[in-house]
Structure formats: C-alpha cells, structure tokens
Amino acid sequence: MILRSAPASPFGRKCKISAHILGLMDKIEIIRANSMDPEDSLRQENPLGKIPVLLMDDGAALYDSRVICEYLDTLAGGNKLFPAGDARWPVLTLQALADGMTDASILQVYEKRFRPEEKYHQDWVGYQQGKVQRALIWLEANAPAKRAQPHIGDIALACALGYLDFRFEGVWRSSHPGLVSWLESFAETNPAFGETAPHD
Amino acid sequence: MILRSAPASPFGRKCKISAHILGLMDKIEIIRANSMDPEDSLRQENPLGKIPVLLMDDGAALYDSRVICEYLDTLAGGNKLFPAGDARWPVLTLQALADGMTDASILQVYEKRFRPEEKYHQDWVGYQQGKVQRALIWLEANAPAKRAQPHIGDIALACALGYLDFRFEGVWRSSHPGLVSWLESFAETNPAFGETAPHD
C-alpha cells in the first residue's frame, strides 16, 4: 500500500502512528504529496486534493484519516484502535474533538498562507482560536487516561497537540499541565510519536 | 435523545435523514442550536461549538455527524447504513468525499458571513471551489448506484448536493446530469430528504 502524505500533516501523522502501533509500517510505502501542486496525482487520487490518502494494492483510494486508520485497524485484526460496543462512541467523539481542534488550527495557518496581509481577518482567526481554546479547557478537565494501548482518540489528540507545538510554539502548554503530562506519557509509551515529529 | 442542530445545517440533515431511514425519529427530540451564540449551551456540549451534537439519555454528548450516524445505525441493529466487511471502505470514503465537498462549500459561505467585503479573497474561495468542482466531476463519472436501501455515503452525498442547491443556486446541475438523476432517485426513494429541506 502507498500512503500519500507530507511530513507536516497532522492527519497523515495519525495514519503513520496508527500503522506503527498496529505493526503495519512494513506494508506501507510513504510517498510525499503536495496538496498545492495541481500536477501532483493527489487530485486524481482524492478529488478534494487533501492528504492523507491510502492507495490500496488494487488501486482503490481510501481517505480521509479516519477511514484509513479504521481500515488499518481491521487489517491488523480489528478492535485494537477502534473499540466495539459501548466503548466505541466516546473514543470516536474524542477523535472528532481532536480532529476539530486540528482543523481549526489549520484554518489559522491557512489564513496567513493563502492571503496577503491586508486580508487577514482577526475575527475569523479568533473564532477558530476559540474552538481550540475551549477544547483544551475541556480536555484539561477531562483528560484521557494514560493507557498502555492507545485508541484512535488518543492518537488524534496527540497529533492535535503536536500540531499546536509545531505551528503555534506550544503556547498551549503553560495553562494545561494535565494535558502536557498526558502527552509526555503518550510519547513515552508510543515511540512512533517522536519518530513522526512534523517538519516542513 | 436530543439532537442539537439547525435547519440550515447539511451535517445535521445527514443525522435527521439517517434517523428517519432507521425508524428512530420518534426517539429523538430536535432542539435548535445557534453555533454563533456564546450563550447557547452548545459550546458546553461540544467545545468546538459545532452542530450537530447528539445528547444521549445519560447526558453524554456524541459528535460529529459521522459518529452520530454510526451510533444511530448501531441503535437500529447495525450494518444498515454502515456496511461491514470489504463494502465498508468505499462507503466511508464516499462519505468523506461528500463531507469534504460540504466543508469546502461552507468555507465559501463563511468567507462572506465572517468578513467585511474588502477582506474577501477570491483565491481562497477559488481553492475551495476547486475541491467541489473536482469532486462533482469525479462523481459524475463514478455516480453511485441508485439503491433502494441507501448507505451513509449516499446520504452524505445527497446532503452535499442539497447544500449546493441551497447556498449556490444549484449551478452544479447543468453540467452534471448523471448526479442530478441520482439525486432525484434518492429523493424519491427517501422522503426524509424532502422533509429535511434546509432553510435559515
């Protein structure tokens, strides 16, 4: 299988960490994609032009990260990162919360990347910041358990916090000590987190 | 259960259509939410401040629409809207494609809603339009089957196209006759589509 991704992508990182934890990295070749390049085959693979995309051996393309991670979980026997039964719903909701933090963070980055400075709009940036801030406050008060076997909600949260470190200089850390401790524990338990540290 | 949503929300519509098809509407009270109102309890229910949110009878909140729809499917016995086995992955990928079209459409609407006119940036709007356009072209060439029993990919696509009708005057229709025919068939087979037509 081929994973189209980029080293800076927090959603690509979810897939890579999932593959590492599931012992599937030797089945996956990572080929860098440039979502800004119209000539990159990415836009044929996923018409949205978004990464990550998983190209399966039969040529079919799977996306987005939620779909890829669940597929990898099934390949590895199932119910490892995605629990069945009543435990499934809070895990999937944590993934949605963490992915939503990442989406709101990316929109703040894109505000500067896609516009000339005179078109920055602080109200919009603040609206997205508000989503991230409220999520951080909620998570600090409702921090996930420090698990030996992470689930997809943990992985998504680690990638969301890692993206805040990468693009926003870790300013979240000073006021969220419980989450800092949680992330340190996640990184210790899962070497793939450090191995997938983002870079441009 | 309580569904926090709004009549204009395409992602809320996914949940309502799913609940209708699964025969669960009599178990769900819909309470309107205003994602722009800081005083709305929505931001406590989902720190992202996004709709839809499903409040379960034990007080727990589930989001986003993908999680809610899969939970409803499980409540109704499972494997109705979300197939198991190999059929699952193309269905979930179609859902991701359709949801991505909707996200890109919403960002175009928000460009005007959140900014003064001098801060509109046509390059950004065009970048989002490109995602929708490529997805429409791909879907026109790879139109889903007209199924008596829709899956979540069908529902998500119907809501994405319905949102284009609602906010972009249906300009997609003239150049995508296969998708128009598909949507007419979906609407005929699923009266919930018409019953949940969006309005402000």
What does this protein look like?
2 copies of one chain form a homodimer. Chain A has 8 helices and 4 strands, in the order E-H-E-H-E-E-H-H-H-H-H-H. Chain A is of the alpha+beta class. Chain A folds into 2 domains: 74 residues, Glutaredoxin (3-Layer(aba) Sandwich), CATH 3.40.30; 111 residues, Glutathione S-transferase Yfyf (Class Pi), Chain A, domain 2 (Up-down Bundle). A 4-stranded mixed β-sheet of chain A has the order 2-1-3-4. In chain A, strand 1, helix 1 and strand 2 form a beta-alpha-beta unit. Chain A is globular, with a radius of gyration of 17 Å.
Shape of chain A: globular
Sheet bearing the most strands of chain A, described?
4 strands, mixed
The succession of helices and strands of chain A, N to C, reads EHEHEEHHHHHH
Low-confidence stretches of chain A: none
State the share of residues found in helices of chain A, binned by percent: 40-55%
**Individual helix count of chain A:** 8
Oligomer: homodimer
CATH architecture grouping of the largest domain in chain A: Up-down Bundle
Could you tell me how far the N terminus lies from the C terminus of chain A, measured between alpha carbons in angstroms? 24 Å
Query: How many distinct domains of chain A?
Result: 2
Average per-residue pLDDT of chain A, rounded, comes to 97
Q: Strand sequence of the main sheet of chain A, in spatial order?
A: 2-1-3-4
CATH topology of the largest domain in chain A: Glutathione S-transferase Yfyf (Class Pi), Chain A, domain 2
- The whole-angstrom Rg of chain A is 17 Å
Given the helix and strand composition of chain A, which structural class is it?
Answer: alpha+beta
**Strand elements of chain A, count:** 4
CATH top level of the largest domain in chain A? Mainly Alpha
Beta-sheet strand percentage of chain A?
5-15%
The pair of chains with the biggest contact is: A-B, 42 and 42 residues
